[in-house]
Write a structure and sequence with these properties.
Layout: H1 15-26, E1 33-37, H2 44-56, H3 71-78, E2 84-87, H4 104-114, E3 124-129, H5 136-147, E4 153-159, H6 167-171, E5 174-177, H7 183-193, H8 199-209, H9 213-221, H10 224-236, H11 241-252, E6 254-255, E7 258-259, H12 260-281, H13 288-308, H14 312-322
Parallel strand pairs: 1-4, 1-5, 2-3, 3-4
Antiparallel strand pairs: 6-7
Helix pairs in contact: 4-5, 8-9, 10-12, 11-14, 12-13, 13-14
Length: 326
């Protein structure tokens, strides 16, 4: 598995994004707010930390790299660099669970950080990872920071769903779109992060992950290839009741801490969408609205089961029976 984005020296693909950041910084007209957008798991946060290290180090290499052996790299990885502040969902000290949103206290702390004089005389960098997780109060507090930034301070936002952000936040940032990774990029990353996988497994994971290395690695760790086989079986033809019950037993069972239920529904929706797109391009989707409605229904079903702790097995059976209804 790869290291956390703040500690990851390895970056593949997204050459246009690298060039855009380097050109903006080298020209002396670096915008104070950047919004990195694109699908989950493609390297947005990894790029944000890479650019942050590069700025804090004085910016030399055109690929925005910083040697892994450099003390600055190690301080950023450890979260101890005095001129870098990260905003993200944090652990609730009372419940010991990850917060469901980015709370305003975190942005207020970031605002205080931004107003300080840089400890090492260069830039002050704030990374807001998963900016779509901000609640309304948090988003409005961030907007004030974007409206009145101090000199040599920069905010780097990442978002897989930028449409959830306030339009005023988007308009005050320079948007840097990042596309899904190419298959060649995925091959290189899987060879580096998961060398134990065989070529056939890598090829299948690349097909399933649709250009997201994060998704590919999660699927590899969660038995995603086997679950994908069940999904394809269900999509190919109606599943008889007895087989549906057996599949539901397999999917709803947690083995060695791995919950297959979320993986099943994620793959069910992505594979359904992929097949619908493929059929639409070939002119063969008689009920496109129905396919879209089903995709939405599966998302709602998963959220309700997880949020209300409902019967996972029953939910899988319902989903399987809905797939081929006319």
């Amino acid at each position: 598995m790869p290291p956390e984005p703040r500690a990851n020296p390895y970056f593949v693909g997204h050459e246009a994004a690298l060039a855009a950041l380097h050109h903006a910084a080298s020209s002396g007209r670096l915008h104070h707010g950047w919004l990195f957008t694109g699908p989950p798991g493609i390297g947005k946060a990894t790029l944000a930390y890479r650019f942050a290290r590069w700025l804090l180090a004085g910016g030399q290499n055109t690929d925005l790299s910083t040697p892994e052996s450099a003390p600055l790299f190690r301080r950023v990885a450890a979260g101890t660099h005095p001129d870098l502040f990260t905003v993200e969902r944090r652990m609730n000290e009372k419940t010991e669970k990850l917060q469901s949103e980015i709370v305003i206290a975190t942005i207020r702390a970031a605002n205080g950080f931004m107003r300080l004089t840089p400890a090492e005389g260069g830039w002050r960098v704030i990374i807001i990872d998963g900016a779509e997780d901000m609640n309304p109060n948090t988003a409005n507090a961030l907007l004030k920071m974007l409206e009145e930034p101090p000199p040599r301070a920069i905010l780097l936002l990442t978002s897989a769903t930028p449409g959830r952000l306030l339009p005023t936040i988007r308009s005050r940032c320079r948007v840097l779109p990042m596309a899904a990774l190419l298959d060649t990029n995925m091959q290189a990353l899987l060879a580096s992060y998961a060398p134990e996988l065989g070529q056939a497994e890598r090829t299948r994971l690349i097909e399933l992950a649709e250009g997201s290395i994060g998704t590919a690695l999660s699927l590899a760790a969660e038995g995603g290839i086997a679950i994908a086989a069940l999904v394809d079986e269900a999509l190919d033809a109606p599943v008889p009741p007895a087989r549906a019950q057996a599949m539901a037993d397999t999917i709803a069972r947690t083995v060695e801490g791995v919950d297959k239920f979320e993986t099943f529904f994620a793959l069910l929706r992505t594979r359904l969408a992929a097949r619908t797109r493929q059929a639409a391009r070939a002119g063969g989707v008689p009920n496109l609205a129905g396919a879209v409605s089903l995709w939405q229904e599966f998302g709602r079903m998963e959220r309700e089961v997880l949020g209300l702790n409902l019967d996972k097995r029953a939910a899988v059976i319902v989903a399987l029976t809905q797939l081929h209804r006319s």
